[in-house]
């Protein structure tokens, strides 16, 4: 009997102890940004902006053909001396080359004959004038002598004009004449050397002079990019020789034909060359900006995180509300990333130290 009472008492005690057992409190694991970390992060606001479609092209500097002077020979002959070289700076009136010409020598011989004929005609006219005034000869004879003098004078003046044109006033009786620079500038083209012969049928220029204060840059556009190019597109030109220099301009001419060899279309950019750093034949990088590609959601590229082939951003509402969002990127241009989904304009993204936060949120 006593044993039964003892067992009953133990059972009541155990039941009572189980009824009054303290509950287990679960600890919250939600990520909260600390105040110290809050001062370390940087943020960027998502915006709606035009897609800046950039196209990188190879370019080459050329002189502005609308701002040059081409120097041609005045007559045929042989080049005795070429006094300047490609790239030399020349002043107006400076000698460029000396040419010995049989035509110029012949013109001087013709001039000597014309001067002799003119002197004879002058004496005859003076004699007839004296005779006419003395009543010995008729007026008709005097007028004929006067007309012969005027014809001789015209013939002499014509030959003298030819000499002045061919020699520019700097020819000699030996047939030598000098070609001079018509403007100040740089020799950007030279097509002649000492000893070369200039044929009468040669229509090419000997020198080209430009001041190089304004130059052209030509760039090649291949077929798959032609639809992205048009006149007026803004461009940035970066010379290979000066990678820290950026020249801004725009496309002012688009060729309507493709080069049959390279299958590329040529575009032209007009640039000011105030520092005289851009020189003909230099290679450049040409970045074309096209803002006609539509409007998309964009934000700083610093906000993007890549993980396992996917792209993410960390959105920030407050230090207690931070989330990871997957994004679909259209294009990254410069420091801007354009997306079609994942975030909306007005949302705030973390752009610095977001990788630490991303890892913390991923492990929750």
Amount of helix: 25-40%
The number of E-state strands comes to 22
Radius of gyration: 45 Å
CATH class of the domain at 35-51 and 294-362: Mainly Beta
Order of adjacent strands in the largest pleated sheet: 2-17-21-20-19-18
Major sheet: size, sense and barrel closure? 6 strands, antiparallel
Number of helices: 5
InterPro entries: Beta-barrel_RND_2, BSH_CzcB-like, MFP_Cation_Efflux, RND_pump_MFP
Domain CusB-like beta-barrel: 214-290
GO biological process, one term: copper ion export
GO molecular function, one term: transmembrane transporter activity
Topology:
Blueprint: H1 2-19, H2 35-38, E1 43-45, E2 47-50, E3 53-63, E4 68-71, E5 77-82, E6 89-90, E7 95-100, H3 102-133, H4 139-167, E8 176-180, E9 185-190, E10 197-198, E11 207-210, E12 214-222, E13 234-239, E14 247-258, E15 264-272, E16 283-290, E17 295-300, E18 305-307, E19 310-318, E20 321-333, E21 336-341, E22 348-350, H5 354-362
Antiparallel strand pairs: 1-22, 2-17, 3-12, 3-16, 4-11, 5-7, 5-10, 6-9, 7-8, 9-11, 12-15, 13-14, 13-16, 14-15, 17-21, 18-19, 19-20, 20-21
Care to describe what's here?
The chain has 5 helices and 22 strands. The model is unreliable at 1-7 and 9-28 (pLDDT under 50). Among the domains are: 35-51 and 294-362, conserved putative lor/sdh protein from methanococcus maripaludis s2 fold (Beta Barrel); 105-169, Helix hairpin bin (Helix Hairpins, Orthogonal Bundle); 212-290, Efflux pump adaptor protein, beta barrel domain (Elongation Factor Tu (Ef-tu), domain 3, Beta Barrel). α3 packs antiparallel against α4 (139-167). The strands form 5 sheets. The protein has a 6-stranded antiparallel β-sheet with strand order 2-17-21-20-19-18. It has a 6-stranded antiparallel β-barrel with strand order 3-12-15-14-13-16. β14 (247-258) and β15 (264-272) form a beta hairpin. It is rod-shaped and about 135 Å long. It is an alpha+beta fold and 364 residues long.
């Amino acid at each position: 009997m006593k044993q039964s009472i003892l067992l009953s008492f133990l059972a009541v005690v155990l039941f009572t102890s189980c009824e009054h057992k303290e509950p287990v409190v679960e600890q919250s694991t939600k990520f909260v940004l600390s105040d110290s970390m809050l001062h370390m992060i940087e943020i960027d606001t998502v915006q709606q902006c035009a897609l800046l479609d950039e196209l990188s092209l190879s370019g080459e500097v050329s002189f502005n053909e609308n701002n040059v002077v081409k120097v041609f020979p005045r007559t045929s002959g042989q080049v005795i001396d070429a006094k300047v070289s490609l790239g030399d700076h020349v002043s107006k009136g400076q000698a460029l080359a000396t040419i010995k010409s049989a035509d110029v020598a012949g013109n001087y011989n013709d001039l000597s004959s014309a001067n002799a004929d003119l002197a004879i005609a002058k004496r005859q006219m003076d004699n007839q004038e004296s005779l006419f005034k003395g009543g010995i000869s008729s007026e008709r004879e005097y007028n004929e002598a006067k007309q012969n003098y005027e014809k001789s004078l015209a013939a002499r003046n014509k030959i003298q004009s030819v000499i002045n044109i061919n020699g520019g006033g700097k020819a000699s009786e030996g047939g030598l004449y000098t070609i001079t620079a018509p403007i100040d500038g740089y020799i950007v083209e030279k097509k002649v050397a000492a000893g070369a012969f200039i044929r009468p049928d040669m229509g090419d220029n000997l020198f080209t002079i430009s001041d190089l204060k304004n130059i052209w840059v030509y760039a090649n556009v291949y077929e798959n990019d032609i639809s992205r190019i048009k006149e007026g597109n803004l461009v940035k030109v970066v010379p290979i020789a000066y990678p820290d220099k950026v020249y801004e301009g725009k496309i002012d001419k688009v060729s309507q034909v493709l080069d049959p060899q390279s299958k590329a279309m040529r575009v032209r950019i007009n640039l000011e060359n105030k520092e005289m750093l851009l020189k003909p034949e230099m290679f450049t990088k040409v970045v074309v900006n096209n803002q006609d590609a539509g409007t998309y959601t964009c934000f700083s590229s610093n906000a993007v995180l890549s993980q396992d082939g996917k792209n993410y951003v960390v959105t920030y509402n407050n230090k207690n509300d931070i989330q990871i969002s997957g994004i679909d990127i259209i294009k990254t241009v410069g420091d801007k990333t354009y997306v079609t989904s994942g975030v909306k304009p007005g949302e705030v993204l973390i752009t610095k130290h977001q990788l630490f936060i991303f890892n913390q949120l991923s492990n929750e």
